[in-house]
Predict the 3D structure of the following.
Amino acid sequence: MNSLPTLRHLAPLALLLSWSPTAHTQGPLPAELTARHGHSSARQEVTELRTISVPNSAAEAVVWSEQGPDQPSQSWYSLSLDGETFTAPQESDSRILLRFAEFDPLRGVPPVPAALARPANSDLHIVQFWTQGIEPYRQTLRNMGVELHLFLANHSLVVGMSAAQAEQVRDLPFVRWVGPFHVAYKLEEGLLSGVWDSSTTTRVNILTMERGMEGQEPVSQFIVAAGGTVERTSPHTFLMSASLTRDQILEVARLDHVQWIDLWSEPEADMDIARQMHGSDYVESVGNYLGQGVQVEVLDGGCDNNHPDLRNIREHGKNTPSSHGTSTSGIVCGSGGMQMRGGMVFIDPTRNRAARGAMPLSRLVIADYSFVTDRYVHTQDIQAKPFRCVLQSNSWGNARTKDYTSISQEMDLILFDFSRISILQSQSNAGDQMSRPQAWAKNIIAVGGVRHVNTLTKTDDSWNFGGSIGPAADGRIKPDLSSYYDNILTTTIGGGYTSGFGGTSGATPIIAGHLGLFYQMWSDGIFGNSAPKNTVYANRPQNTTAKAVLINTASQWTFSGGTHDLTRVHQGWGHADLQYMYEMKDRMLVVDETDVLTETNSTVYNIEIDGLTPLKATMIYRDWPGTTSSSQHRVNDMNLMVTAPDGTIYWGNRGLKNNMWSVAGGNPNSKDTVENVFVEAPAAGTWTVTITAAELNQDTHVETGALDADYALVVTGIKP
């Protein structure tokens, strides 16, 4: 802990203005404080400075606000448990973070429906402190007879106390706000919506305020008296379950013994494990990303358009429903009972939420490949009204081959001409290089498969001769990405579910769904990109950029060597990881084909690296269709070079075929249109990323008459 000098007996403002490195006797003054309080030319205006004491304790806090030119005011604090040494200043986020809403209570509390407000006889309150909670705060509350139940971000507790106690707590100097803990805060989103009849009995999970039977017994007694059924209690946890009607759920939620209620489900093979590992649950939690506004086509063997989980659909051509197409569609867009009505999310508890796809609130376009006679025209159509798709998922293909065929070439041409739609293709399930010819296309996203044996951990994952693999015949790294090969819970024909769907047919729509969530995030402009228009479709990036972000932020399975079960050409660049993608959004450079190079010319980017996270650079260029009679299917050659502060050079893909991290030295890559440099522990300092148009045999930047090319570049791990 960085420490600051004694505060006791000093006026707060005089203290802050008098601190200096020479007066500090316990070590160097923290850099944050030096920069902020009189030891920097960029001085902040300090306001609302005051000390806070804790009754019957030596603990103290200092709180203040800072505001620089053209900047909003920001709250800060520093803490001392002994009244002598203080922590380094910390920014304070005063929002209370509830699933119901996030709000600063001093700026306003969002209204709740009257039926979901805290009952008059409830003692549950939220207590928010001016700083992060410390034990002297909590002990003061205990000494007053307050029951402490739950921690609540930010700087808050859910407590049990009477109205009289609440008034006393409000007067404590370290307490910022006291308010009701409403029933609405205890319920899973949409749980009490009008989706189900009030007389329908549904099984729910209940978390009690107190652990074990001491907390669960009063709730059990109430449920039995109300006519419900207690299904399960636990003597060791907070979790119990019961079968209740809608009205009974509301009554149970009003109990002070209850902290949370949500829907119960059977343990089963699942799509929701994929959502956790690939990060869609995370981006839902931080940004409510559920595919809103994204339109995606699943081109397969037809889909059951009457399936209750696939209602937000549009048919593209003739459709003959099949179980395979229904399953792949559900992996991408299955609702699991989630619906959007009037701008609010509702959940139908009669559906299987564990089967929810990656984008439950997206628009699904379904097409049957049996009736597609012109793939080019079909692709053109799905980008026009009324479809406006940003991606297409394919878990089918022509006869398997090891070669770059006319089908491969056609797919490269389609993706060359239609540069703002992403197409994903299953590699197939031969356990060797025999793959769908579409997967060998350079401009496509080819997806392989890894067995996850229905667990969230990756330590027991394996390829084990399941999915088809690379490299391509000309040595290019394929597949591009991989995902689950087995035990996928999803929709099936006839309105039901299957728990055994798999193969790269399952892996591909998993990646497709997570790519669709990237398009939604891109349309929100969270990567520093421009997003001036009103729809995801109108804001969509180049497909090379979408592919580059997905690959750059992917999570690799651990491997070493070319013979490892999960070596590079078995797993590709790993699996989509939207949590890492989101966490890197402020540490990311994205070039969305905005730079154009003539042959042999280069562009250099100087990038500041702080060394706190790996440095990952991904360059992808859209290439002209390969020559099928040639053994090399790369037409143009563009190179990625990354140079460390000490002059060490890393070339694209150097060492990455057999290792997780780049190897220095060597020569430029001359095979792949996807090039990566991954440095696990980069030195802090200025790194340079150089893109060179080493060889241009075909004009790929068709907007000009010159022979030139553009590219997508993504660099993560940069200093924010």
Remarks:
- The longest strand covers residues 588-598.
